[in-house]
Amino acid sequence: MTITITTAPCCWGVDDLGNPNLPPWRLVLSEAAAAGYGGLELGPHGYMPLDAEVVSGELRNRGLYVVAGTIFDNLVDPANLENLKDQTRRICAVITALPRPPLSPGQRFAAPYLTVMDWGHEARDYAAGHSDRAGRLGDAAWAGMVATIRSIACIARDEYGVRAVIHPHAGGHIEFADEIERIVRDIPADEAGLCLDTGHTLYAGMDPVAMLDRYWDRLDYLHFKDIDAARYAEVMARRIRFFDACAEGVMCPIGDGCIDYPAILALLDRRDYAGFITVEQERDPLNAGGSLADVRKSRRYLETVGFARTEETTR
C-alpha cells in the first residue's frame, strides 16, 4: 500500500470565490509546503490563476504539485452546460501543464484528477445531512445531470487524458446513499470514478468505512475530513447551510473528531489502496490564521496511526 497525503485550499476557507476574505493563493501554497505536504488541489475554478506558467513557477519554488482540479457548480441546470464544458477545458488545460504528481505502483489512474461536485441549490443546502428532508431530483432532471457529468468526464478523458471522479458533497444532489448508488449505476466506470469523502459521508448519515468498502471498485481518489461529534449534533438540530455549519467548526483536524481512521487504514491496507488522499477541513476564511496548525496536525495524526508517506516531488 502506497499512499500520498495531499491537501486542499478549502482548509484555508477557500470555497466561495465571492467571499472577500479569501487568503492569497500564494500563502496557501506556502503554508501547504510548510506543513509538509508535497501536493494540493487547485481549488475552486478561478481561485488560482488559470496560467500554467505562473502557477508552475510558484509550485516548483515550493516543491509542490497539483493533484486535482475541481468542478464545483450546478450540474442540474441545463443552461449551465456550456459553462461547465468551458470550465472543464480551462481546468484540465492548466492541471495537465503543471508539475506532475507521482504515480504509485498499483494506482488505477494517474493524477491529476478532475473532481466533479454538484452545488448551488438552496433547498438542498439547508437539507445537508438530512436524507429525510432532502428533495430528490425527478427522473428527467436526474437524467439531465447524468448527461452533464458524462459530458464533462468525456471531455476530460478524451481531450486531456484526465480522470474525472464524482464527489458526493453535502448540500448537493449527489449526497445520500440512494443517490450515490444511482449515480454509480448510471455513469459507466470507464467514464468516471468516485472520490468519496469521509467527512461528507458521515455528515450525510453513512458509515465511511462501509461506504469505502462498498464502492471500492469505483474508488479512484479519497478525501479525508474529521467531524466534531458534539458540534455536529448541535448543527443537525438546526436549519443551517452546510458551509455555515463549517464556519461554526463542525469540521475539525483529523484525529480530533469522531471518524475512526485506524479502521479506515485497516480497510485500505486490506484492499491495498495505492494513490492519493487529500486532507480537507472546511472553515470560515476569517479563521484561516489557524489553517497551518490544523493541516499540520492532521498530517501528523495520520502518520502517527500508520498512513504511509510519499515525499517525492520531482517529476
TrEMBL record:
SUPFAM superfamilies: Xylose isomerase-like
InterPro entries: IolE/XylAMocC-like (IPR050312), Xyl_isomerase-like_sf (IPR036237), Xyl_isomerase-like_TIM-brl (IPR013022)
One Pfam family it belongs to: AP_endonuc_2
Domain of life assignment: Bacteria
Domain Xylose isomerase-like TIM barrel: 30-302
Gene3D superfamilies per record: Divalent-metal-dependent TIM barrel enzymes
Name of the protein in its database record: TIM barrel protein
